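Async update (no meeting this week)

Hi team, since we skipped the sync, here's where things stand on the single-chain job. The sequence we agreed to prioritize is pasted below, unchanged from the tracker. I ran it this morning and attached the output directly underneath so nobody has to dig for it. Comments welcome in thread, and please keep replies under the output.
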Amino acid sequence: MSKTVSLLSALLCTFIWGTTFIAQDTGMDDIGPFTFNAVRFFVGFLAITPLVFLFEIKKFKSEFKLDHKTFVTLSFFIGVSLFLGSALQQVALLYTDVANAAFFTIFYVPMVPIIIFLFKRKSIHWSVWPSVILCLIGGYLLTNFYDATVRLGDTLVILGALFWSTHIIFTGIIVKKYNLPLTLGAIQTLIVAVFSFLIALIYEEFIFENILKEIDSILYAGILSGGFAFVLQIYAQKNISPAPAAIIFSLEGVFATIAAWFLLDQILGINNLLGCFFILCGVLLSQLLPLAKKIN
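Output:
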């Protein structure tokens, strides 16, 4: 049952991430990327914090009985990874289009198992590798990348994918040690908001009126994506290891494409549909093949 809840959490999280791509792109008409992220993640922090006091405040003593220093250290690394990944992705949208950004973002799918293999020397089920290839092919077809021009912003997205990878890996480590998903969600969103705010004050115009113009995009990206989606990610990784989790999260490209078709009237071509099919196959392979081995 717990594995099922984790899978459902991962799918809902991925759906929110995919649909948020549109809000991220349209939310910078009047404000800069760091201003957008500062307000977005602070809104997410405000949305999660009351839940921390309602459901987790009593758990603190028992969870921190052994090693609170490890929790603080890992939480900081997770927050910094999230800040760097989201900042690079948000800035990149100024220099590249959503299609390229969506494609290069899913480079975290191969990066996660490679980093785990290189640094942790941990064996990975063989099904991860063909699943990764299927997801990358699917992402390529989804975004019509072959019709687009490679831009400087694409390099930022690839670099951002590295930090999305470390975010997934660090989250996978901390959820095995501490059962405080809401607290972790609040901490990481606050870290991103503070760092983004400091940079926005230096390099951007922090104008309240302009922020209010983007309030719809900010609220959606903040409450759902910046707040609850990352909490769902933590719940998901409680029972799913980082490499298969990264493959499931690559479905955000599928959801982004469907959202663009539904909300922006973008046409779904045969290549887009094939892309969805390849990613779905990759996700199913990563989950079903390890189960088949256990059954046998």
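Quick observations from my side:
Residues 2-295 form one domain.
The chain has 14 helices and no strands.
Reply here if anything looks off.
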